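>> received
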Amino acid sequence: MLLTRKNRRGASLVEIIVTVGVLAVGLYSIGVGLQSARSGTAVAARTVLAETYATNLLEMLLASSDELRRGLADHTSIRIPESGLKPLSGNDRYRWIAEVKRLENQPAAQVEVKLFLAHGAADKPIAVVKGIVPLTKGGIQ
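>> returned
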């Protein structure tokens, strides 16, 4: 059927405004979703990096168990570094501290490494890693 001039009908202004409004809401929702996904990915990447740094610090402390044994000779717990939070060498975005506590009736100590953002709250670590280190002479066997 051929459309004659009488049968042709275009979109009214109201229909066009409603369509543009629906499209705007949809595009805005997509933009918000992409932004939240992007920020979530950044937080996850920062957390993984912090966990890696904290694990490396823990491994460094485990390798120096002779020094920990000497430090715990007269104390039940020590803090490394003693002066408080220390910047991470080679990366000024993070600070760290480790707490070492002797385990009762065992020749071992629990090591807890906490990593903080350099410009963040000093009471909320972004990564915490724990481990047990033997305090026998010669370190880890």
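>> The chain has one domain: 13-134.
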